[in-house]
Amino acid sequence: MKIGKTDLGERPVLLAPMEDVTDASFRILCREQGAAMVYTEFISSDGLIRDARKAIAKMVTSDAEAPVGIQIYGNIPEAMVDAAMMADRAAEIAGGHGADVIDINFGCPVSKIAGRGAGSGMMKDPDKMVAITKAVVEAVGKPVTVKTRLGWDEGSKIIVELAERLQDTGIQALTIHGRTRCQMYKGEADWTLIGKVRENPRMHIPIIGNGDVNSARKALEAFERYGVDGIMVGRASFGRPWIFAQIRHLLDTGKEMEPPSVRERVALAKRHFKLSLDLKGPVTGVYEMRRHLSCYFKGLPDFKPTRMRLVTETDPEAILATLDYVADRWGDFPFTDETSAYGL
Known about the structure:
- The protein is of the alpha/beta class.
- It has helices at 24-32, 45-49, 53-58, 77-88, 90-93, 111-114, 126-139, 159-168, 192-199, 216-226, 243-253, 262-293, 304-312, 316-330, 338-341; strands at 2-3, 6-7, 13-15, 38-39, 43-44, 68-73, 101-106, 144-149, 174-177, 207-210, 230-233.
- It has two domains: 7-253, Aldolase class I (TIM Barrel, Alpha-Beta Barrel), CATH 3.20.20; 262-330, Non-ribosomal Peptide Synthetase Peptidyl Carrier Protein, Chain A (Orthogonal Bundle), CATH 1.10.1200.
C-alpha cells in the first residue's frame, strides 16, 4: 500500500492519532513495535495559524518515527488551508523530520470539537467537508489523507457516496472509523460500510479501516473479510504498544504471538519512559508518562498501590526502581487473555 511515494508494505497497520496519547515517545515506540506509520496528536488549525506554542510543538517529529502524518482539524476553510501549508513546512517551522503526510481530521466525535462543526461535526455539512479537502489538497505539496466516520447518526450514513467525493478532491488515502458521530465509541464498530467503500469499483485510493481492532485475530479478519488496504489501531494500543508486533507476526507467519511477559512489559515501559525523558525533560517527561504507565500492567492482581506509586512519583530514578519492583514481584504472572485483561 502506498500513500504518495511512501510505501507502507502489504497489509500495513497504522497508529491512529489520539489526543494526549500519540506524543513523540509513544510514536517512536509503536514504530519500533511494527506500526507501519504513525500520526501526531490532532492539531487545531486555529492554534497553528495563531502560532500557539502547544500547536507548533505538536508538529515536531523525528526520523525515528517516520513515516509520520501530521493531523489537523478545524471548520474554517481559510484557516485549514493556512494550517495545512504550515504542516507542509513543519520541518522548517518546528524542526525535526516534518510530515510525510498531511491528514485531515473529520472523525473526532468529542463535543468540544464536533459540537462546533469540526472533526466529525463536519459530517453534517459534507459539501463544506469536500470543499475544505479540495482546498487543502490544492494548497500543499505533501500527500493529503482524510480520517472520518460513517456519518453523523444512524439515519445519515453517507460514507459510500462521500468517499467518492473525497477521492475526487485528490486525497491519496481515506481512513474510515466504523461508527457514526452519535455513537461516539459506544457499541461495536460496523465494518460493513467500510467494506462497501472498498468494494466500490470507482474507488482507487487506499481504504484504511478503523474501529475495535483490539487483537491480531481481529486485524486479520478485517483484512480478509472486508478487503481493506490497511488497518488503523487506536485505543487498543494504549498501554499495549506490542499489539503492532502481535498483528504483524500473525499477518506474516499465520501464527499468534504470545502476550509479552511482565518482564518484557517492564522493559518496554522503561524504553518508553526514557524516550519521554529524553524528548521532554525530567519534569514534563515524568508527568506525561503517567497516563501510559498506569496502563502497561492492567490486569495484574493487587497492583493498585504500585500503580499509585508509578503515577504520583516525581523522581525518575524512583520510577525506574518501581518498574524493577514490578518485574521482581509479578515476573511470573501468566498473561493469557489480553482482551479480557484490557476490557476490550
